[in-house]
Write a structure and sequence with these properties.
With 391 residues, the protein is mainly beta. It has 1 helix and 27 strands.
């Protein structure tokens, strides 16, 4: 849900930020999973309704197999940065599943268009238009800090049924991607929003759950009702972080008891196929063997020094971004560029964007007037997206 709510609209706007002043005719994007090879989503953006003063990007996304995922109207300002979005999340057959309205005006963005501070706000509604949730993603120090999701009560009086909060303080992030550490999760429910559960989601290096340690509380918010441990070591995830195949082991221990109940859930092709409570002495399936790494491209490696280098700094003087550019043989048009974004320490590389201009045509002022620019983004050294920009 976090990715669906926030990252898509911001990423679509970022895909062309800084490439050129001229607005593209269309943009095709492929977003990859944590391995840098498996496709998570594919999309196409139209800039027909965008001018130098801003406008609306129309974006349609599909899943790797071609099934529809979403359509979005993304409002951008004169700098091409996202201001708001209206997204329709779709089922596999194209039926409306949910709508999401996003507001990004309270976000401070870096030179590349990524959030540094502030809050992105979202309003969710069902297919019939009835409001269901309100969500916020808070950013601090150029990374997600906290996510909250409020579920409205069904009484129509504006009461809150539950609130979910996710704290990223101990998570390892590279760019927008989770790369380990853990998330702290809190859920409050009931008329007084009493603490209902707490959890630690311990992540793998791919950002997927390794273990989830949860404690569920009674209505008083303090008495432990049960402890639950979910072990994902036997699970294979798809490129979007959904369970694809394998087995999930869940251990449940009632509060005040040493008795444990171990349940085995099996999945095939993304669907739960069986559930079995294991008896004492039953064999426990071993962890799933890691799949061999798929070959993926790396950023372009130049063989000579750049013809031009531009640096952007933060207010505190730390280095935020370096843009190295190589020009065509005549020096009138760009040929290739590498844009490197740095963490707040000004030294650690967060992302590298490799921009290939060789298939584009340029006017005398150096702006593209035809052809294609291909931009590939890497986060933590792993390919995260490829964008094809047509003029």
């Amino acid at each position: 849900m976090i990715q669906e709510l926030g990252q898509q609209a911001l990423a679509v706007a970022v895909d062309v930020t800084g490439l050129a002043r001229n607005r593209p005719r269309s943009v095709g994007a492929v977003h990859y999973g944590p391995d840098g090879a498996s496709v998570a989503t594919m999309g196409h953006a139209s800039y027909a309704d965008v001018s130098d003063a801003g406008g609306t990007i129309r974006y349609a996304a599909s899943l790797a197999g071609g099934a529809p995922h979403s359509t979005s109207d993304i409002v951008v300002d004169a700098q091409g940065r996202a201001v708001s979005s209206a997204t329709r999340l779709l089922t596999a057959d194209g039926t409306l599943r949910r709508t999401v309205q996003g507001i990004y005006r309270a976000l401070a963005l870096d030179p590349a268009g990524w959030p540094t501070e502030g809050v992105a706000q979202f309003s969710l509604a069902g297919p019939d238009g009835s409001p269901s949730h309100v969500a916020e993603m808070t950013y601090a120090n150029e990374r997600p800090a906290r996510y909250s999701l409020v579920n409205d009560a069904s009484d129509g009086k504006g009461a809150i049924a539950s609130r979910l909060e996710i704290d990223f303080a101990n998570a390892v992030l590279v760019g927008t991607r989770l790369r380990g550490g853990e998330l702290a999760i809190f859920r409050h429910a009931g008329p007084a929003l009493t603490l209902a559960s707490t959890a630690r989601s311990i992540l793998t290096a791919h950002g997927t759950p390794g273990r989830l340690l949860a404690t569920n509380y009674a209505e008083d918010g303090s008495t432990v009702r049960q402890r639950v441990e979910s072990n994902y070591s036997g699970v294979a995830f798809d490129a979007r972080g959904k369970i694809l195949d394998g087995h999930l082991l869940v251990t449940l221990q009632p509060g005040g008891s040493n008795t444990q109940v171990l349940t085995l859930f099996r999945f095939t092709n993304g669907k739960l196929t069986s559930t079995r409570v294991l008896k004492p002495g039953d064999p426990v399936p071993p962890p799933r063997e890691a799949a061999p790494a798929k070959p993926v491209p790396e950023p372009w490696q130049p063989t000579r020094a750049p013809d031009r280098t531009r640096r952007a700094f933060r207010a505190d003087g730390s280095l935020a971004q370096v843009r190295d550019e190589w020009l065509s043989s005549g020096g009138a048009a760009p040929w290739r560029s590498l844009v490197t974004g740095f963490a707040t320490d000004g030294r650690t590389v967060v992302r590298v964007t490799d921009v290939d201009y060789r298939a584009a045509q340029f006017a005398t002022d150096g702006q593209p007037i035809g052809g294609t620019i291909i931009s590939t983004r890497f986060e933590g050294g792993v390919r995260s997206s490829t964008t094809r920009v047509e003029y």
